[in-house]
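Run: sequence + GNR -> complex structure.
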Amino acid sequence: MDPEDDTLAILIAPHPTLKARARPVGAGDGEQVRALIPRMFDAMYKAPGIGLAAPQVGVKLRLVVIDLMPDDARKPIVLVNPEIINASEELATREEGCLSLPGQYADVTRPARVKVRHHDEAGIRREIEADGLLAACLQHEIDHLDGVLFTDHLSVLKRNMIMRRLAKEMRLKGK
Ligand code: GNR
Ligand code: NI
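>> structure
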């Protein structure tokens, strides 16, 4: 709409970058990562969504931003090179959506609790232990870094149904 809008565009499936494995952020990536983080939060809040992985904005780096906005207050989390170091045997099922599959939702089953090791925006090594929505969101975002979408956790039948419906809806919207 606005030709001056510099909001990062979010890639929509099927796009090859969404299927690619992202590479770890390294020492030489500091400048790009520092510039990207506020723009990723901006695109995520505008969408709106609760998480965004760099490959969704066309950057094949292992970088994620998350904000569940508890009580409508911003609580931004930056994850550089996140790794799941523990996942519970207990599973949980919840409805997921994805900004790269707009308008599509399905129940996804994943480990109920995870422990994630990462670096923050200052390069400090951190760990998060999560359950509930945050656990699902962390796994969903780390999947993006490995070229995996929530539809890859569904049956072939459900996945094909969603992919066809998305293609049709994008065609109708003229996107
Ligand atoms: O906004 C999002 N909501 C969501 C809901 C349940 C599980 C995961 C998510 S992440 C998603 C934003 C997104 O696509 N991140 O990659
Ligand atoms: Ni997503």
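>> summary
The first helix runs from residue 30 to 46. The chain has one domain: 16-173.
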